[in-house]
Design goal:
CATH class of the domain at 495-816: Mainly Beta
Structural class: alpha+beta
CATH architecture of the domain at 495-816: 6 Propeller
Strand content: 25-35%
Radius of gyration: 43 Å
Shape: elongated
CATH superfamily of the domain at 495-816: DNA gyrase/topoisomerase IV, subunit A, C-terminal
Length: 824
């Protein structure tokens, strides 16, 4: 009859999972606070020690080591053991490697190690410090998985290995992530703790400055280190070390020499390349990896004129060159997981070393006393050598001789046995003197060992001496520097806020030009060639802005993008510029229709839209404050409609909307006639268009500022007309005549409000610009055609396409031109 126990399944599951989780926590995932090792690391080092694979012995095949560990101590799969062994040999994973690997043990690029049948290994020199004195009963042993062998519960660990190489592990419901540290700093901190047991975590930071990663890098600020050392948890921001180099030809490059801990270099380079492809990173002309056995060297060449600090900012922002290392100093203390502060870890290490030194001293004392006891027997025997020989010769066998010696001279069994095993050469005078000297030295040693055991201070002195030895033998310079927290360098700190002209062609080429490159000309001049356009392309718009303005770019699909003016490449007058599609993410068939500029996204301003079909709407500027790289829905356009004008208007202002059409009509009405609505709306009718007509221009008029409006036709005719000649109407009217269009004048191109003291800048489809004082353009009535403002080459079908206005200045003050904002 079988023995069946009834049990609720939830109780069984709870108990089973609890057993499993405790097994993972204690036996696999978390390091012991004393030696800083997980069971698999400890077993690998112990097995190699048992195999005699010290740093001064020949390498042996990794497969042989893995087999030894699997067969005797760690039956969890060869991949787990070999993988751990590989990491212990990688100089980019371990601050102080515990395994000396020979062969391909992987790379910082993420390359896997060769199969274990190809690689060889032995313990590194520093590993011997973890195992030293293990044979002197300094630690406890337990049975292995099949009770056939003994394995150490913990190693003697002369090194403070938990902090030295750190640890990473995920258990059940908890995790540990301890960064590596510099040996010299750890030794200084432990010595300070021995001298002052009341020292605080903060005071220890005077000696242990922070993590020291094997790959170097820079830690930003000490706040995260302070949290980690005082609470056991903290977050430190680590960034790569990047130098800015300039070649003899003047080309600037960013050189990445160090990267954050546990970052895959190959993945980093791929990430940078993808960001350049996605246009999140601009200004980079070349990217290459020049790393070799001497260290990391990733070269990022910048385009001419690029500001390296701005590219550096984006590298830190979009890649893992700047990342956060979350510190959780969790370790097993008496088989119980605990989050420890810096001092608590060092205290536990000191407790362990105190016990190791004590047990080692006891072992040495016991061994010395046993030897002294034997030597004492030798001395008595030598004093009575004739009688001893006689007793031995008279005995039937060795056992009888031993009993006789014990009875006659009160020897212990050990002494009697040693006397019987003594060689005849010990009877010589020199040998007798050696025994006497050895016995006397042992007595001195025994006295010294006993003195150590009765005085704790002397044990700590030994620990201090050993630590000083470790520092002298293995210490090296700190690799990770700790700097004041790096504040993101804003472009405004590096860019000069000067006035520029931004031009845009019909095919989407944009460029930024200093305004001082143009010279004022008389009315009717031929202009100055400003742009080398591609075939069948022409300059569509010209805007006057400042470098630090934000450009809101509106497209024919009703979307809006945000761009700083300085992000438009600066070019010469004759340069073609750069495709705007390479700067912002335009869709197929999407074109830029209008651009406005602003400095702040305040709630007291609205964006005013006017479309080709005469619709108008206002949306609060604040709704456009957060625009990502993919753009934002700005207006809902109906089929066949398009954006003609976008402008900013003060909500409380008395400004009026002035809309002009292609066939020479215009309407003027208060902007308050248009209510404010959301982004995803179409708006309301602003002008009732005649058949075949369409809106070509819209502006905001302020009677106190704008006395006249300037109208320009495509054939270069223009005039000024007083604003008060246009009657104030209600929204959605048909408007009045603005300019009588005919074959000679061509259709109206653009209408802008102007003032005396300003200059006109007009641009043609062939990229020719003319700059003329507004005062030289006569004022005419509404129903006139105006005068010739700019000569266009009719044989080349040249047309005026855009105008802008600027403040008029004397030619000798050309370099100090100040421009007003354009009102579109």
């Amino acid at each position: 009859m079988s023995n069946v126990n009834n049990r609720y399944i939830e109780e069984e599951l709870k108990q089973s999972y609890l057993d499993y989780s405790m097994s993972v926590i204690v036996s696999r995932a978390l390091p012991d606070v004393r030696d800083g090792l997980k069971p698999v690391h400890r077993r690998i080092l112990f097995a190699m020690n048992e195999m005699g694979m010290s740093h001064d012995k020949p390498y042996k095949k990794s497969a042989r080591i893995v087999g030894e560990v699997l067969g005797k101590f760690h039956p969890h799969g060869d991949a787990a053991v070999y993988g751990t062994m590989v990491r212990m040999a990688q100089d980019f994973n371990y601050r102080y490697e515990l395994i000396d690997g020979h062969g391909n043990f992987g790379s910082i690029d993420g390359d896997s190690a060769a199969a274990m049948r190809y690689t060889e290994a032995r313990m590194s020199k520093i590993s011997s410090e973890l195992l030293e004195d293990i044979e002197k009963n300094t630690i406890d042993f337990r049975k292995n998985f099949d009770d056939s062998l003994d394995e150490p519960i913990v190693l003697p660990a002369k090194l403070p290995n938990l902090l030295l190489n750190g640890a990473t592990g995920i258990a059940v419901g908890m995790a540990t992530n301890i960064p590596p540290h510099n040996l010299g700093e750890l030794v200084d901190g432990i010595l300070a703790l021995i001298e002052n047991k009341e020292i605080t975590d903060v005071e220890l930071m005077d000696y242990i400055h922070g993590p020291d990663f094997p790959t170097g890098g820079i830690i930003d600020g000490k706040a995260g280190i302070y949290d980690a050392y005082t609470t056991g948890r903290g977050r430190v921001r680590v960034r790569g070390k990047i130098d800015i180099e300039e070649s003899k030809t003047g080309r600037v490059s960013l050189i990445i020499k160090e990267i954050p801990y546990q970052l895959n270099k190959s993945n980093l380079i791929e990430k940078i390349a993808n960001l350049v492809k996605e246009k999140k990173l601009t200004g980079i002309s070349d990217l290459r990896d020049e790393s070799d056995r001497d260290g990391i060297r990733i070269v990022i060449e910048l385009k001419k004129g690029e500001e390296p600090e701005l590219v550096l900012n984006k590298l830190y922002k979009y890649t893992e060159l700047q990342s956060t290392f979350g510190i959780i100093m969790l370790a097993l203390v008496n088989n119980v997981p605990r989050v420890l502060t810096l001092k608590e870890i060092l205290v536990e290490y000191l407790k362990h070393r105190f016990e190791v030194v004590t047990r080692r001293t006891n072992y040495d004392l016991e061994k010395a006393m046993k030897r002294a006891h034997i030597l004492q027997g030798f001395l008595v025997a030598l004093e009575n050598i004739d009688r001893v020989i006689e007793i031995v010769r008279a005995a039937k066998d060795g056992n009888e001789a031993k009993i006789a010696l014990v009875e006659n001279y009160s020897f212990s069994e050990e002494q009697a046995k040693a006397i019987l095993d003594m060689k005849l050469q010990r009877l010589t005078g020199l040998e007798r003197e050696k025994i006497d000297n050895e016995h006397r030295d042992l007595q001195t040693k025994i006295s010294g060992l006993q003195d150590i055991l009765t005085h704790e201070d002397k044990i700590y002195e030994i620990i201090k001496e050993e630590l000083a030895y470790l520092k002298d033998k293995y210490n090296d310079k700190r690799r990770t520097s700790i700097e004041a927290e790096r504040l993101e360098i804003m472009p405004e700190d590096l860019i000069k806020d000067e006035t520029v002209i931004v031009t845009r062609t019909n095919k989407g080429y944009v460029k930024r030009i200093e305004v001082s490159k143009y010279k004022a000309q008389r009315r009717g001049g031929k202009g100055v060639s400003t742009q080398n356009t591609v075939e069948n392309d022409f300059v569509e718009s010209l805007e006057v802005m400042s470098n630090l303005d934000t450009m809101l770019i509106f497209t024919n699909q009703g979307r809006v993008f945000s761009l700083k003016v300085y992000e438009i490449p600066e070019s010469s007058k004759q340069a073609r510029g750069k495709l705007i599609g390479n700067i912002i993410n335009l869709r197929d068939g999407e074109k830029v229709r209008e651009v406005i500029k602003t400095r702040e996204f305040t709630k007291d301003k609205d964006i005013l839209f006017v479309t080709r079909n005469g619709l108008t709407k206002k949306t609060n500027l604040h709704e456009y404050r957060n625009i990502n790289i993919s753009g934002l829905k700005a207006i809902k356009l109906k089929d066949g409609d398009d954006i003609i004008s976008v402008g900013l208007v003060e909500r409380e202002s008395k400004a009026e909307v002035f809309i002009a059409t292609k066939l020479g009509y215009a309407i003027r009405f208060p902007h308050s006639d248009i209510r404010t609505m959301g982004r995803d709306t179409s708006g309301v009718k602003g002008v009732n268009l005649r058949y075949g007509d369409s809106v070509i221009s819209a502006s905001l008029i302020d009677d106190a500022m704008n006395e006249t409006v300037l109208t320009i036709t495509e054939n270069g005719y223009g005039k000024r007309t007083r604003v008060d000649e246009y009657p104030l109407q209600a929204r959605s009217g048909k408007g009045v005549i603005n300019l009588r269009c005919n074959e000679k004048t061509g259709n109206v191109v653009e209408v802008k409000p102007v003032m005396d003291g300003e200059e006109l800048m007009a641009i043609t489809s062939n990229g020719v610009i003319i700059r003329t004082p507004i005062s030289q353009i006569s004022i005419f009535g509404r129903a006139t055609q105006g005068v010739k403002i700019m000569r266009v080459k009719e044989e080349l079908e040249e047309k005026v396409v855009s105008i802008a206005r600027i403040k008029e200045v004397a030619e000798e003050d050309e370099l100090e031109i100040e421009l007003e904002n354009i009102i579109d």
